[in-house]
Amino acid sequence: MRGTMLKSLLRSSISDASRVSRRGFSSESAPERKVAILGAAGGIGQPLSLLMKLNPLVSHLSLYDIAGTPGVAADVSHINTRSEVVGFMGEENLGKALEGADVVIIPAGVPRKPGMTRDDLFNINAGIVKSLCSAIAKYCPNALVNMISNPVNSTVPIAAEIFKKAGTYNEKKLFGVTTLDVVRAKTFYAGKSNANVAEVNVPVIGGHAGITILPLFSQATPKPNFSDDVIVALTKRTQEGGTEVVEAKAGKGSATLSMAYAGAIFADACLKGLNGVPDVVECSFVQSSITELPFFASKVRLGKNGVEEVLGLGSLSDFEKEGLEKLKPELKSSIEKGIKFASEN
Fold it and tell me: One biological process GO term for this chain (predicted)?
């Protein structure tokens, strides 16, 4: 009985996932699209590989890592969906993994451990990002690059500088994936308001670490009716969501599954934009002129060239205006840290 129920639940979940990913394009009408995942054998990379295999907009799925990729690729390749899967292992095969990619997703890097901030990861992950972006500039300079590797507030500026040095930088094609902040804000908001989470929308601006994450609950839909104390608590929980998971896993990992889900959501939006689906809007950390900072997360409209438009912040509450001013110095410092690393290495 229990086995029958489990099979039914799995069938229903996969069917729902397929319907969601098909929204806007059927696999029959979708053009050929190659997606490369760099760091595919890691904690985020494996579930992300699974989710991208389920996406009917993907025709070729290229999985790369320094070790363990053949097993992940073999496992995922048995799933009966559209995309062909090829695994590549070792730096000598990175170029082959990247050639012809339309979208490159980078979850590569070391995970956070208890007591470790995103910035503690900086030196290791910055070096990894530098190496991978140098290869992207050489083998698929026109791809949309989705940066997941933390600290995103620094790794996106590093990537920009590497691409500038190579003469391939296009600010419309480089994204810091902040979707998990939006996913968390929606979930926590729905939990407090008893709204249907599928109908909730909460923009999140700023950056992707601590106080630089600023959910705009004043702009949430359905319209909020919360006290100031509840808004403060929801904001704090959204900002500390990653730490909540790290502590709950007690030294055995970070937010790998929810991050993979968020990464798949954003990659799907990029693919839809490339394929000409209208009005695809997601929050992302991109080159921006809406504040005095060179990079900033806000809503962006995605299209055939990547970023079609960086959307404004809209009307902010006094609490949000205060949060915006508080986050700027820390975000500025993280951006400058990334630029400095790229210039010195």
Answer: malate metabolic process
